[in-house]
Amino acid sequence: MLQKLELRSAVLSLVILFVGLFIWHFSTYVPVTGPVGVEFSQEQTDALKSQNMVAEDIEFYASQGVEFPQLEQIAALGLSREMIDMAGGIQALGISVPDENSAPAPGSLFPSPSQIGVELWATITDPFYVAGTNDMGYGIQMGYSLLRVIIGYTLAAAIAIPLGFLIGMSPVFYRALDPYIQILRPISPLAWMPIALFTIGDSELSSIFVIFICSLWPMLSNTAFGVASVRHDWVNVARTHELGALKTAFTVILPAAAPTIVTGMRISIGIAWLVIVAAEMLVGGTGIGYVVWNEWNGLRLDRMIVAILLIGVVGMLLDAIFGKLQRAVTYTE
Amino acid sequence: MAKPFLSVERLTQKFPDGAGGALTVFENATFGVEKGEFVCILGHSGCGKSTIMNVLAGLAEPTTGGVIMDGTEVSGPSLDRGVVFQNYSLLPWLSALKNVTFGVRARYQDWSKTKVEKHAKEFLAMVGLEGDVVYRKPSQLSGGMRQRVSIARAFANHPKLLLLDEPFGALDALTRGTIQEELLKIWGKTEQTVFMITHDIDEAILLADRILLMTNGPFARVAESVEITIPRPRNRTEIVEHPNYYAIRNHLVQFLGQHSKDLAGQENSGENNAPETVRIDMTQEAPEEEDASPHLRAVND
Q: Is residue B82 a contact partner of residue B144, using CB atoms and an 8 Å limit?
């Protein structure tokens, strides 16, 4: 039954994927039309050649869709193609190509799924190339982002979990620190960026600081809540077994509050991954957030979409790690 | 007069009543428990049984009065006083075995890991938990099994006094019967001093050497101490045949049904606060009964 359920949902997922790609493909599909070539009769060619026009040039203009009367005008100018090009092309000389033969339709500006696929494949097969400061493999850029997230997040955990323990165990600390937490928590992490840039100065450290500050609150409040709501019976078990404060904290309160704490950690890593993209867009230089901004500025939408897709995949993996950790510490009463 | 092993002296507990005054739950509760004795305390809800239990466990402070055990005053919880809570209080993230070793390790810190485990398994076996079942988490055990683990944890620590707070209150009648017998068995082997709260008269008669009866609150007190004159080893099917069984049972029903109400709310002077000893023995020629002989009454009286 379960297998059948899994199979059915997998099939449905694939159907949704294909329908999505299909819609995407057709909404971005514009047939690329090249210029309509023009054929000249032998007399016309001879007439042009008699006006000192090279056979090569006649062929070129014909492939560009320039009609005979216009070509006669060009020939009458007695200029070579190089000189015409230097002057800005035939249009600049007042000779126009008839509309129906006009220049290629550019296709859609928004990349189609197949273009993304090509770009994605190129990224996956060569993720770590370095061709310049603004042209590095997405693997390297992702590495920069992950490193910042890991440093900022680890610092936040190192402070939030012990502090949360203290707040959860002591009603005095809980009440004393609560107003600060309530005010600081709703501030958008990016609002800290100017302060960080001014005080810390270094843009690298500033983005780490922003990750730190945004990861702090969910872990802090969840740890405090988890610790404060440990069943009193379990604490009594520790008390009747004469466990000291430290031993009680590690053998009873920590395992009892672990599911809530890990939930906080999971929320934090999710927020940190959201924020790093925005922070790197602001700070620039390296990182996957910067890549998105950079590709947008270069109008390489196909590469930008690949980067966005990879942000999603990495975020999913980060969440999955904490999901696994969460299942490991969860208990049923 | 020599002090008993556990001496509860003029215990009074007052709680704020929410209207600025104080509510006296019980007043001048005084009684003793001898070493190796199994004592049950019976009384209606609200008479402060659980509060007495918490004071004995060291989890709560009485307003006035004190508890002396083995010559020292009780203050704060201690490994010398093991507690079995009504809701088992097993740590749900640990297996049954780990829950017991948790206690044993706290008690015998110098023991090796294998010794701790062997000791824990021994006591789990005493309450009928053997084999793979000890590696299960509490959530995978039935209510009865959980309470067995909790009992094993308490006995494995060899406390000087074992406190049982309505241990079978949440169990169905059949399971309760089995575990009562397990409890008797393990108690017989360890000669543990036990103090137990219960609501169940039959359970109290089956298990106890002595039953303390409390009057209703507020101003509750321990009014009587009824000796259970039924020889051990007891077993639930045979004790009902004993001539003393219904005499004692009727006395208890009578007290809880009527006397506990009549005696309630009397602010006693504190002079005569030790419980009155009641001994009902129909097997002797001239039973000395203080109360109007209740043994002819119907049980449902």
A: no
Which structural domains are found in chain A, ordered by start?
42-101 (no CATH), 120-329 (1.10.3720.10)
What domains can you pick out in chain B, each with its CATH number? Answer: 1-75+215-301 (3.40.50)
Q: Report yes or no: A251 at the B interface, CB cutoff 8 Å.
A: yes
At B95-121, the pLDDT tens digits run 999 999 999 999 999 999 999 999 999
Give the number of other CB atoms < 10 A from CB of residue A47: 16
Tell me which residue in B83, B94, B137 faces A240 most closely, judged by beta carbons: B83
For A129-141, the pLDDT digits (tens) are 888 888 889 999 9
Q: Kind and range of the H or E element at B278?
A: strand B276-279
Do B56 and B74 meet the contact criterion of CB atoms below 8 Å apart?
yes
- Which parts of B158-192 are beta strand (E)? 161-165
- In tens, the pLDDT along A21-36 reads 999 998 888 776 666 6
pLDDT at A219: 96
Q: What SS3 class is residue A127? A: coil
Q: Which two tokens stand for residue B235?
A: 């077993």
Check: CB of residue B217 under 8 Å from CB of residue B46: yes
**Under 8 Å between Cβ of A327 and A318:** no
Q: What part of A 217-246 touches B (C-beta under 8 Å)?
A: 233-234, 236-237, 239-243
Residue A159 has pLDDT above 90, yes or no: yes
